[in-house]
Inverse folding.
């Protein structure tokens, strides 16, 4: 049956309108990787990224030196943020900045949000959300004397509209949820949840880390309050690339973030004795912008804009659908469980497969050139980056996984 799927993979690649983008990603000569299935953790580098960074170092940095700050670099957090908002977030200009790490921006936005709801004592969040989201909210709750109200979500899903409706109330200050669950890939109904939270007088902070660049986002249409996310997954920003933060313009005059660095000052070079926040979303900045680290992100946004987020989403649904089909045909009867929604409209761009001994599979998979992701205690994530992943590559990877399952069964 695997041969039949091989033919199907070839046909899907042939009809893929985005197939030309695969050649725009760097695959070094002599690479031992036969299937890279971890694009939801770290995207491949684009060929143009290496060229852009070399050119920047030799020309902009090399020739302009410190003059570059005054000429353009200080504006990059907002300039690149506006571009990100337009291409991937459905956010009008002036609401997105690129800075910090996801953890730091998550803290700054959440802390600002709860301060904007004085007298309310609860933060609502998902018991199965990404660890940082849970840890940061726990720290804020301790700092501010708040309670955490946990949503008991299913491991193969995420927060539902009904769960949020039951949880929020007059004491809810903030709802913090991931749009795509990091473990299961479950895609929540962000617009409906935002509306329900607002009806209770609460604010909402969306973590878009497993969303941005693979699933269309409409922050302004959702009437979202805040959002945060990383750029090293489907945006191919590279290891440790900076995060982004979104603050809806209606909150610009009301919220103040807690880390008062000099770049977030109204006049950074005044070096005055007291802090006065910069107007608008720039007030969310703290320290010196990570200019070099933004260069790969700019290239990633170029590629995403050229492809179009709707086309990317269409291929994402095809890729995850093919992965589910392969898993159900070849792996489910071998003791493997699908820990992701079967409905393509309810999942992001990765699926999770679970088996009790999958923790022992990662090393042999890597040895055979198949690179998925592992999440304890027993889940292998198949992360599918629509611009760089082919259907044949997906087929090769799951074929090797199937072979390893059979080898273990024969022992």
């Amino acid at each position: 049956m695997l041969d039949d799927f091989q033919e199907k993979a070839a046909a899907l690649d042939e009809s893929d309108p985005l197939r030309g983008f695969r050649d725009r990603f760097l695959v070094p000569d002599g690479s031992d990787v036969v299937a890279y299935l971890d694009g939801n953790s770290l995207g491949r580098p684009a060929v143009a990224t290496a060229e852009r960074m070399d050119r920047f170092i030799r020309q902009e940095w090399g020739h302009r030196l410190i003059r570059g700050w005054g000429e353009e670099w200080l504006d990059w957090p907002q300039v690149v943020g506006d571009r990100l908002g337009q291409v991937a977030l459905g956010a009008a200009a002036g609401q997105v900045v690129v800075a910090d790490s996801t953890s730091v921006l998550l803290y700054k936005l959440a802390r600002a949000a709860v301060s904007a709801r004085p007298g309310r004592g609860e933060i609502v969040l998902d018991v199965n959300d990404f660890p940082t989201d849970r840890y940061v909210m726990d720290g804020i709750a301790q700092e501010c004397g708040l309670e955490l109200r946990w949503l008991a979500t299913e491991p193969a899903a995420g927060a539902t509209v009904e769960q949020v409706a039951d949880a929020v109330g007059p004491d809810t200050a903030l709802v913090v949820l991931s749009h795509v669950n990091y473990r299961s890939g479950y895609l929540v109904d962000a617009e409906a949840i935002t509306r329900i939270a607002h009806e209770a007088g609460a604010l909402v902070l969306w973590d878009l880390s497993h969303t941005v660049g693979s699933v269309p986002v409409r922050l302004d249409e959702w009437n979202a309050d805040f959002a945060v996310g990383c750029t090293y997954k489907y945006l191919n920003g590279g290891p440790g690339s900076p995060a982004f933060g979104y603050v809806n313009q209606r909150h610009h005059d009301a919220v103040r973030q807690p880390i008062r660095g000099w770049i977030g000052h109204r006049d950074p070079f005044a070096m005055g004795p007291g802090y006065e926040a910069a107007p608008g979303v720039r007030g969310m900045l703290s320290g010196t912008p990570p200019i070099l680290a933004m260069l790969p992100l700019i290239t990633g946004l170029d590629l995403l804009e050229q492809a179009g987020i709707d086309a990317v989403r269409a291929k994402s649904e095809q890729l995850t659908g093919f992965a589910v089909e392969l898993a159900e045909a070849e792996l489910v009867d071998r003791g493997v469980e699908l820990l992701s929604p079967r409905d393509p409209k309810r999942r992001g761009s990765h699926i999770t497969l679970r088996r009790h001994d999958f923790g022992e599979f990662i090393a042999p998979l890597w040895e055979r050139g198949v690179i998925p992701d592992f999440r304890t205690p027993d889940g292998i994530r198949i992360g599918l980056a629509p611009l760089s992943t082919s259907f044949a590559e997906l087929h090769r990877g799951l074929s090797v996984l199937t072979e390893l399952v059979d080898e273990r069964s024969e022992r």
